[in-house]
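Section 5.1 Outputs to date
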Amino acid sequence: MNDLDDKIREELRKEDAELFDEFSEETSVFEMLIETCRGKRRWLSIFGGILTMIFLVLGVLSAVKFFDAQTTKDMIMWASACILCMSAVSMLKMWYFMEMNKNATTREIKRLELQIARLAGRLKD
């Protein structure tokens, strides 16, 4: 490390302690889920949530019908429907987690941009 790095760290420690405390809090999974519904593509997130619920209900209904089926053909049909619906639920959940990960990464990049802008402002002074 050089002298400039030490100076930068010292300045950040002095003036930005409260800023780091504010940003150091981790958001919960529920908060991140709600965060996906706020933004330019909130309609897509809401639509994905509705689809997830629909496929979940259809999957459970298919499982119940599977146990009530009398013929092998019906059992195969309801089991296939259940597997298809639960696969769709799994894929939609993975999509939601990717959206939450993208939002978290974007938030961290914005934090870094803020820190760099504040540091650049101090170095100009």
